[in-house]
Queue: 3 jobs
Job 1
Amino acid sequence: MRRVVFAAMLVGAAVSFSSCQFVDRLVGISIGKSSVVAPIPATPSFPTISNPTSTSLTVVWSVVNGSGGYSVYRASAASGPYQEVAEVTGTIYTDTGLLPSAYGAYQVYYYRISAWDSSGDSGLSQPASGVTSSAKISAPTGFAATSVTSTSVTLSWNTVAGGVTYTAYRSSSPVLPNPPTTLTGIPLSSLDSSSVQATDNGVSPGTTYYYIVQVVDSSGNPSLSPILKVTTPP
C-alpha cells in the first residue's frame, strides 16, 4: 500500500475529513461534487545499466515530470515476464542479490521502469539489459567513446586486473540476448591486456550504435562492461 487517502468533503466554508482508508493509489480528493485527479505520468525513457558487480546492477533513468515515484521491474528474458522488484522515489536503483556470471554462462538481467502518481501507473519503458560480472574478474570500467566522427568511433576503457584479452563488440540493438553464449554484433578487435582502446571504422553518419567490451582472464572467465550508446554526427 503506497498511500493513505483522506476523502475531503466541503461542508459550508469548512473542510472536514470524513473518512480515511488505505488504498494502492491516491485516486483523488473529492471536494463537493467535483474531483481533482492528476494525469497519469508519461512512460519513462529508456533506462541504462551501470556499475556491474558479481551480485548487483545499477539501473538509472530520467525524471518523469509529475510522477510520485517509480516501479522497477526485472526479468530473465527481454520479452518477460517482468516482476516488480522495487518502488523508489528517485531515478536510480541498485538491484542486489543477483547471480554472478561464470565461464560460458553470462547472467543477463532485463529491466523496465514505470512511473506512478495519484491517478495510476504509466506504461513500461523499453527494456534495458545488464550482465553481472564474474566473481573471478571484474567488469571493465571507464568505457567511453573518446572520439566520434561521422565515419569512425574510438573507444577506450580501463585495464582490468587479471585481464588477458579484451574484445569490443558493436550492435544495432541495445538489448543483449540471453544467454549471450556468442555475443551478437560485430567484434571490433581482440587485444592483449596492455591495449585498452579500439577504433570502429565501419560506422555510418547519423546512426546510433551500441558497444560493449568483454574481458577474459587466463582461465577463460569473462566479464562484460555496461552497454555504451554512441550516435555519429550527420
Note: Residues 9 and 31 are 5 Å apart (CA to CA).
Job 2
Amino acid sequence: MADGAVGRGAAYMIGASFCFAIMAALVKVGAADVGPWAVVLVRSVVILGIGGALLVRRGARLRFIDHRTLVVRSLAGFTAMLAYYLAIERVPLPTAVTLQYTSPMFVAAFAPLVGERVTPRMVGWLLFGFVGVVAVVEPVGWPDAGAWLALASGALAGVAYHAVRKLRMEDPDAVVVHFALVSTVLSAPAAARLVQDPPSTQTALVLLGVGLSAAGGQVLLTRAYHHASAALVTGFGYSGVVFGTLFGVLAFHEAPGWSQILGSVVIALAGLGLARGGRA
C-alpha cells in the first residue's frame, strides 16, 4: 500500500478522533442542561437528516438483506451511545473517553461467540488491556456507576462492530440511516422535556454541535478505512484519548492522575495489538 494512502488514512483517523472528542466535550455540557436522553435525540435527528440527504442525493433506497443483524447493530449502537453519554455525565471526561476506547478489546473477547478465531497472542493483548482498565478505573472506584457505564459502552460498541462486519453487503449510508432512525424513535420521549422546557440558544447550539461533530467524525472515519486497512490506521484512532484528556483538563479542569495516564497507554497499546491481529 502506498505511503501516501496510509498517510491520508492516518490524517482522516486523527481528524475523526478530534471530532469525536469535541462531541464528548459538548455532550458533557449539553447533558448538564437537558440530560443525556435529549442529547441522544438531537444527535440522532441531525445524523438522520444528513444521512437521509446523502441517500436522496445518490438516489438510493432503504433496502436491506440481513434485517436481523441490522437490528442488532442499531440496538447495540443506540445502547452504547446512551451508556457513553450517561458515563460522560458522571465521571471525568478523560476516564469516560478512555474506557469507551476499550471497544477493540471487546471485539476480540466476543470473537469466539461469532465463530472467529482468537490466537494466544490476542488473548495476551486482551489481558494486558484489562490491566489498563483497572489502572484507569482505580482512582474513580469500581462501584462507580459512571465507570461501569463507560465500560458497557465499549462492550456494546464491540457488539455493534461485529454486526457491521456482517453487513458488508449493505449500503453503508443506509445502515447509518437505519441506526439514526432507530435511535431517534427510542429517544423520542426526551422530546417532551425539550418542548416543556426549551433549551436556551446556547444549549441548542451545543446540541447541534454534538450532532455535527458526530457526523463529521463518522465521515472522516469512513474515509480513513477507505484509504488504508484497519490494522494500519486504528492506532491513530487512540489520539482521541489524548484529545479527550486535553478537553477534560482545559474545559472541565479534570486532570487525570498517573495511574489513569498509564492505564490509557496500556489500553491504547492493547487495542493496537489486537487491531494487528495479535502480532507484536
Note: The two ends are 20 Å apart (CA to CA).
Job 3
Amino acid sequence: MSTSSKRFPSNQKNNAAGDASRIFMSLSRLETLGDAIFAFSLTLLAFDLDLPGLAGSDLKPRLIALLPKLVIFIFTFLVVAQQWDVHQRTLRYVAHADGTFIWLNLLSYMFIVLLPTSADVLGEYPLEPLALMAFGVNLALFSLVSWFLWRYASEKGRLLQEGLNSEIVKMIGNLWLSTPVIIGICIPLSLLSVYPVYVIWFLMPIFSYIVSKRTVQKIREQTDISG
C-alpha cells in the first residue's frame, strides 16, 4: 500500500480513551459553541457600517463615503468565513474530544472573538499598515492555534475518525498553516503598499477551495486505482 493512500489504523487503546472522553467531553456542544462564536463575530463585522455624518442631508455623498468601510467589511467577512469553512471541516473529521482538545479549541475561539475589534480598527484605518498588521496577527494566531489543535488530534489518529485518509489529514493541516505563512509574507509587503496585501488575502478563500478540490480529486483517483 502506498503512503499517499495510507489510512490511520484503529487502535483499541485510543478507542477506549475516546469512549471514556465522550462521557465528559461533548463534541457536539463544542461545535455548537464554535458556530455561535463565528456567527456572532461575522455579524459584529457589520456594526461599523453606519452612514457618515456629513454636512447636509444628501444621501448620495454619505453612501459614497461609506464605500471604503463596505469594502473592508466584504474583505474581512470573506477572510473570516474562509476560516470557519476550514474549522468546520476540521471538526467534521474528529470522532471524539479530550480535555486538551477542548481547551485548544477554546483558545482558538478567543482569537475569533477578538476579530471584530481588529476588523473595526482596520475599517477605521484601512490604509495604515499597522491596522492591517493587527488584523493579520489576530487571524494568524487563530490559524496557528487551530493548526496545533489539528496536529494534536491527528497524531497517530488520536481523536480522528477511524480509517481517515491521510490526504485529508494533510489537507486540513496545510489549510491551517497556509494562513499564517501568507500573512507573515504579506506583513513586510504592507509597509510598501497595503493594496497588494488586500488582493492576496482576498484570494485566500479561492486558494482553500482549489486545495480542497485537488485533494478530493486525488482521493478519487486513488480509489479508482485500488478498485
Note: The chain has one domain: 10-226.
